[in-house]
Amino acid sequence: MITGAGSGIGRALAQRLSRLGSPVAIADIDEAGLEKTAASLSGPVLRRVLDVRDATDQLRFAGEVRAWLPDKLAAVFNNAGVAVASSVRDAVPEDDDWLIDINFRGVVNGTRAFLPILLEQDEGVIVNTSSVFGLVGMPYQSAYCASKFAVRGFTDALRQELRGTGVRAVNVHPGGVTTNIARNARVRKDPEGLGRTKEQMAAQFEAVTLTSPDKAAEIIHRGVERGKARILVGPDAYMFDALARVAPTHYYWVIERLQARLRARQKETAG
Ligand SMILES: NC(=O)c1ccc[n+]([C@@H]2O[C@H](COP(=O)([O-])OP(=O)(O)OC[C@H]3O[C@@H](n4cnc5c(N)ncnc54)[C@H](O)[C@@H]3O)[C@@H](O)[C@H]2O)c1
Fold first, then answer.
1. Quick one: residue 27, left, alpha or beta (phi over 0 = left, psi -120 to 50 = alpha)?
2. Degrees (nearest 5) of the Cα angle 211, 135, 76?
């Protein structure tokens, strides 16, 4: 089962798992995106328009998935997520709540809805998508970082509770992946005061991404198969993780310089 399967990493995961012969239950709030994903799959697929914020509907969906599956439920990918770019000072509470309801509460809802199925089987994996922004704090990403740190804490706590059962809980920390996340973000104004449009900011984000959705899906799938508890996606994710450990209060000094270099490289290529 994969949420947020109408685009990006979720779609690539559905395509990979389906290609490898697994039936996939895919959910997304975006019906058109979901249809496009479903059309790209050749194996059995259960598609479901779902808002991950709706705990009752997640529970209903879990029942549908269980009834539909010919065999055990192998994995639950709570992957759906959104972004907001804003300074803390100018934050619009409604935008931050929207993000936290999807990125954090959506993961909690999905975990609670599907966990009983896995526990009953005494087998399976809950795979929750955090981010490298669940490892370090980044300027103008306060709500996003808070939601992704929350996913990490929630999933780590769950992992300890599951000791002694056949069920596992996994945190995924992607670095930059070339998806629609920045284009789907809520941005009221350029938080850095540079007057950039949302389109320009999305292009800058894409210029510093190092991993394709297909590659991300491969890394996540292989990590789950290998029994990892936390999966870092992309070379930048390893860098963020190392920096957070060796320079827990000064990592941004390095990240800022790296970002400036990547942006300059993008300008050179564009020019
Ligand atoms: N792209 C990156 O660089 C990156 C980095 C770290 C973490 N992530 C995380 O990876 C996950 C997947 O994001 P992506 O990059 O593929 O982005 P994406 O925008 O391409 O896909 C996200 C999908 O989630 C769906 N979605 C949004 N709100 C929803 C809701 N309320 N209910 C159900 N579905 C909803 C969207 O419709 C979309 O199809 C997210 O949790 C994101 O935070 C992405």
1. beta
2. 65
Residue-range domain boundaries for the chain: 2-235
Distance 245 CA to ligand 1 centre (A): 27
pLDDT over 80 (residue 10) = yes
Q: Residue 269 above 90 pLDDT?
A: no
Both tokens of residue 228? 């990892």
Residues 218/231, Cβ–Cβ less than 8 Å: no
Burial degree of 198 (CB within 10 A; 0-12, 13-18, 19+) = middle
- 12/107 Cα distance (integer angstroms): 19
Res 271: pLDDT: 63
List ligand 1's pocket residues with C-beta within 6 A: 3-4, 6-10, 28-30, 33, 50-53, 79-82, 102, 129, 131, 174, 176-177, 179-181, 184, 209
Show the tokens assigned to 89.
Answer: 């000072």
d(CA 159, CA 237): 21
CATH superfamily for 2-235 is NAD(P)-binding Rossmann-like Domain (3.40.50.720)
